[in-house]
Design a protein that fits this description.
The structure holds 2 protein chains of 2 kinds. By secondary structure, chain A is α+β, with helices and mostly antiparallel strands. In chain A, 32% of the residues lie in helices and 14% in strands. Chain A has 5 helices and 5 strands; from the N terminus they run E-E-H-E-E-E-H-H-H-H. Chain A has a 5-stranded mixed beta sheet, with helices on both faces. In chain A, strand 1 and strand 2 form a beta hairpin. Chain B is an alpha+beta fold. Chain B folds into 3 domains: 20-27 and 481-625, Aldehyde Oxidoreductase, domain 4, CATH 3.30.365; 34-373, Aldehyde Oxidoreductase, domain 4 (2-Layer Sandwich); 420-465 and 630-794, Aldehyde Oxidoreductase, domain 4 (2-Layer Sandwich), CATH 3.30.365.10. In chain B, helix 14 runs parallel beside helix 15 (547-574), helix 15 (547-574) crosses helix 16 (600-609) and helix 17 (667-686) packs across helix 18 (739-755). The chains are: A alpha+beta, B alpha+beta. Chains A and B meet through helix 2, helix 3, helix 4 and helix 5 of A and helix 1 and helix 17 of B. Bound molecules: FE2/S2 (inorganic) cluster (FES) (2 copies). One FE2/S2 (inorganic) cluster (FES) sits between chains A (114-120, 151-154) and B (198, 250, 504).
Chain lengths: 176, 794
């Protein structure tokens, strides 16, 4: 980041403890000085401007904040940002390659797996991690794998179809 | 050669959605994603009590926290005459409480600070002293003699009644009942529910002192209504208010009303001259914003032995919470409840409706429904099943006996609606065939021998969507038309703007398809924009399944205006008179020599480069569409279930949906809407409800207590279609976004009731939780979800 110009906050409240963290986000090391109580979801959204990670509840139920933590889906609203220090985080912004969408992204569009799009980043990341552990799932296995992510719009049927379609595509790629 | 309409993404193409390109990349632009320079953050302190007098509010400690910029209470609001605001239903609502709090979660104070964490800390530092008052949590308590008066702020309000309303033919209905062979009765409670889109409500108010312009980014389904409301409430000139509704993470009716948080953020921005962002947490959303349903329905049906319905009598008691703030068309106090039984040919009907205030959050919003039709159709289909059972007539046959027949349209319903099209019998047949009705009845009988409980539930209904024609429909006096504006650029590409506002329905995709259908401009060449009141034409917004019926019609009409002008340009280019020109998709040609023609794109170029004398340059126009009638889609939903007699747990075996929403613009999107709706129907039937304890504490204030179905619980659906074009809509379309939520619940409940038929249980209130079903099975009595609580029980 450029250091040509940086505004220094007027008088940092001296009794607020801060910590310096470095997190690898979508393949790039990002460093921030944060309060220990800051949630990971908020650091990603407000600190790093990665607003594809959403927040939708206060109780770890909805899953719209899902990101991959060293490859495993976690709910970033329920993890402190300091806990991610030194770890790898993948957000929806890191899902596509430079020129290509990830097969899961393509499948969600092709199978109409989203409507308002609010749950979509979390759904896709959960699906991506799931398909890495289970490349050829049954419909029931997909439904179970997604059961930590709520969607209010689609009724899930097309999301399940999307994940199954992505699985097929990924298997095809792996076979090549 | 004629263009292939499907290839250009016209009518009937399952075109992939344009908006998905940003959503799948995490590049949506929801209100909480927007960051403005110098932006501050607002949090709301809410009342922990449901009914209490405010004795004092001490904000000293909050002000002392570093980073706090402003603390506002009812007093701050009152000093600007903003402590109360008008609602969309001619009531008033407190913005920040001044005198007393009237429901748990009511807004009491706000803190504006440098970041949301500081604002939350400061809210906790505010000390409010309350004097608790007796609490009312249901209509029975509200109407009891001597009940405490909730709205003592209103002059002339001497009781807790919001309205007392009647519609229909009382004498005719009395006569029908006098002539009846059998009278069937049913009482039920449609429980309180919350639309709960995953994105909560929020706003960013940005008042610019230099220009006096107020820009508000806001989670609203109806930006123009909000602009009008802000102009009235904040007394700002309307042209100095710009409401921008960015991407919405779902709405379902929750984002129609004006909420105190919006108003408070606006005042804060005016006072601080900085952008102020307010993002509601989930608990705030669930306990304070528009609830739905919570209505007691009583009804009876006059029947002839042969199955003919002679008349219907209904009464409703609806719980509106502390403020009547849901948006209903102003003529109809209980929304379109009187559309009930519209698909049946019933000679006489009468409905009385009473609304009451209680110490609950304002309720009665149309949750994925067209103004109370969800309750209307649920009651209708439960009553129909009860009547068929009372007469011992097969439930499918009973419907067939009473359906309005295909050749009886237009048909005037007993309550005065005019239905205009449908093939009700055919939809039912398609549904019965798909589910394998006769087969299932055999299986059910077979299973019964082994003590297994199988059931089948049918729900058939037509509903009034697309309010509406200006003779009948207005909100706060504003007629419910809608609009579209189309600009065709020089190279034949275009931008379309409408007064509607998508929340997931895919308008950016489907509106372009209507333009493609009317003009032959490929849908990919049409940008669609909505939600910015500075650029979009005035419209009433998106709810009540009104976008396709009203705004969609406006899109077709504005395209036709463009085509009419393009015809003049074509005549000029082809050097013939307009009368000698024919239109085919995307092209005008000379009638006598069809090879000579010009494309719509060539006409567009001419509009800017080769305009005949006397013709205005340019190719743009707008259309305001006032629909002649509502649209009347029809649906037949059939569910089969198995109930476990040992636990009361029920599983859906199959669910078939037959929808007739007229012409489908984008079948993929239509089916997506239906599946989403069916899931919410299943949710209401099986798990989704919000209750209150006797103190008015909201039980269901978060997603741990308020259960929404996940992919695991949600059953699969099988969809079928029948197409009866709407006779008055320019492209024959009808509303669809809400049919399944409206009609679906009764199919599930009827199926469970069918499975336990014969044990003397008439009703189990939704949601059909296992313990309720088990209680009905073992104790053989009705199970009510909300038994009336007597005043002295508390
Ligand atoms: S925001 Fe709901 S689980 Fe994280
Ligand atoms: S697409 Fe709206 S919540 Fe899933």
């Amino acid at each position: 980041m450029s250091s040509l110009f940086a505004e220094v906050p007027p008088e940092p409240a001296s009794d607020v403890p801060v910590r310096r963290v470095t997190i690898n986000v979508n393949g790039e090391a990002r460093t921030a000085v944060i309060e220990p109580r800051l949630l990971l979801a908020h650091l990603l959204r407000q600190g790093f401007g990665l607003t594809g990670t959403h927040t939708g509840c206060d109780t770890t139920n909805c899953g719209v904040c899902t990101v991959l933590f060293d490859g495993t889906p976690i709910k970033s609203c329920t993890m402190l940002a300091v806990q991610a220090d030194g770890h790898n985080i993948l957000t929806v912004e890191g899902l596509a390659g430079a020129s290509e969408l990830h097969p899961v992204q393509e499948a969600f569009k092709d199978e109409h797996g989203l409507q308002c799009g609010f749950c979509t980043p979390g759904m896709m990341l959960t699906a991506k991690a799931f398909l890495e552990t289970n490349p050829d799932p049954t419909e029931d296995e997909v439904r179970w794998a997604l059961s930590g992510n709520l969607c209010r719009c689609t009724g899930y049927q097309n999301i399940v179809k999307s994940v199954l379609a992505a699985a097929e595509k990924l298997r095809g790629q792996a076979g090549n | 050669m004629q263009l292939d309409e499907i290839k250009i993404g016209g009518l009937g193409a399952s075109r992939r959605r344009v908006e998905d390109n940003r959503f799948i990349r995490g590049k949506g632009n929801y209100v909480d994603d927007i960051v403005l320079p110098g932006m501050l953050h607002m949090e709301i302190l809410r009342s922990p009590l449901a009914h209490a007098r405010i004795k004092s509010i001490d904000t000293t400690k909050a002000w002392a926290i570093p980073g706090v910029r402003l603390v506002m209470t009812g007093e701050t609001m009152a000093s600007r005459n903003l402590a109360w605001m008008p609602t969309l239903s001619y009531d008033t609502q407190a913005v920040l409480a001044t005198d007393k709090v009237r429901f748990q979660g009511q807004e009491v104070a706000c803190v504006i600070a440098d970041d949301p964490y500081i604002a939350k800390d400061a809210c906790e530092a505010i000390v409010v002293e309350y004097e608790p008052l007796p609490v009312i949590v249901n209509p029975q308590q509200a109407l009891a003699p001597g009940a405490p008066l909730i709205r003592d702020d209103k002059e002339n309000q001497l009781d807790n009644v919001v309205f007392d309303w009647a519609v229909g033919d009382k004498d005719g209905t009395d006569r029908a009942f006098a002539a009846a062979d059998v009278v069937s009765k049913l009482e039920l409670h449609y429980p309180r529910s919350h639309p709960s889109p995953l994105e909560s409500c929020g706003s960013i108010a940005d008042f610019d002192r230099a220009t006096s312009k107020l820009t508000v980014y806001m989670t609203t389904q109806a930006p123009h209504i909000i602009r009008a409301a802000v102009a009235l409430v904040a007394e700002l000139p309307e042209h100095m208010i710009r409401i921008i509704s960015p991407d919405l993470g779902g709405g379902f009716g929750n984002k129609v009303p004006v909420y105190p948080g919006y108003v408070a953020s606006i005042l804060a921005s005016i006072l601080l001259e900085r952008p102020v962002k307010w993002i509601e947490d989930k608990t705030g959303n669930l306990i304070s914003t528009g609830f739905a349903r919570d209505i007691y329905l009583h009804g009876e049906m006059a029947l002839r032995k042969d199955g003919k319905i002679l008349g219907v009598r209904m009464h409703t008691d609806s719980d509106h919470g502390a403020f009547f703030s849901d948006a209903q068309p102003s003529k109809f106090k209980i929304g379109l409840m009187h559309s009930t039984f519209a698909c049946y040919d019933i000679p006489a009907a009468h409905l009385t409706a009473r609304g009451v205030y209680t110490n609950k959050a304002p309720g009665g919003v149309a949750y994925r429904c067209s103004f109370r039709v969800t309750e209307a159709m649920f009651f209708q289909e439960r009553m129909v099943q009860a009547a068929a059972d009372d007469l011992g007539i097969d439930q499918a046959e009973f419907r067939r006996i009473n359906f309005v027949r295909d050749d009886d349209f237009p048909h005037r319903t007993a309550f005065g609606f005019l239905t205009d099209s449908g093939q009700y019998g055919k939809c039912l047949d398609v549904g019965l065939e798909a589910i394998g009705y006769q087969d299932f009845l055999r299986q059910k009988a077979e299973a019964a021998k082994q003590g297994r409980l199988l059931g089948i539930g049918i729900s058939t209904m037509t509903e009034p969507l697309g309010a509406g024609n200006s003779r009948e429909y207005d909100i706060l006096g504003i007629k419910m038309f809608d609009s579209a504006e189309l600009r065709v650029h020089m190279t034949g590409k275009a931008i379309l703007r409408t007064g509607a506002k998508s929340q997931g329905q895919g308008h950016e995709t489907t509106w372009a398809q209507i333009v493609a259908h009317e003009l032959g401009i490929p849908a990919d060449d049409v940008t669609v924009e909505e939600g910015d009141t500075d650029t979009a034409p005035f419209g009433m917004g998106t709810y009540a399944s009104r976008s396709t019926p009203v705004a969609g019609a406006a899109v077709a009409m504005v395209s036709r205006k463009i085509r009419a002008k393009a015809r003049k340009l074509a005549a000029h280019l082809l050097e013939v008179s307009e009368e000698d020109i024919e239109w085919e998709l995307g092209r005008f040609y000379v009638r006598s020599s069809p090879d000579r023609g010009v494309t719509i794109q060539e006409c567009a170029m001419a509009a800017y480069s080769n305009v005949p004398d006397g013709l205005e340059p340019g190719l743009e126009n707008n259309a305001y569409y006032d629909p002649p009638n509502l649209t009347w889609p029809f649906a037949c939903y059939i569910a089969t279930v198995e109930v476990d007699p040992g636990t009361g747990v029920w599983d859906v075996l199959n669910m078939v949906a037959v929808d007739d929403c007229g012409v489908r613009i984008n079948p993929m999107i239509v089916e997506g809407q239906i599946m989403g709706g069916l899931t919410e129907a299943y949710a209401m039937a099986s798990m989704q409800f919000i209750t209150f304890d006797a103190e008015g504490n909201c039980v269901g204030s978060n997603f741990m207590d308020y259960l929404l179905p996940t992919a695991w619980e949600t059953p699969g659906f099988e969809l079928h279609e029948v197409v009866t074009p709407c006779p008055h809509h320019p492209i024959g379309a009808k509303g669809i976004g809400e049919c399944a939520t409206v009609g679906g619940p009764a199919a599930f409940v009827n199926a469970v009731m069918d499975a336990i038929k014969g044990i003397g249980v008439r009703n189990i209130d939704m949601p059909l939780l296992p313990d309720r079903v088990y209680e009905a099975l073992t104790e053989r009595h009705d199970v009510s979800g909300a038994p009336p609580v007597k005043m002295d029980d508390r």
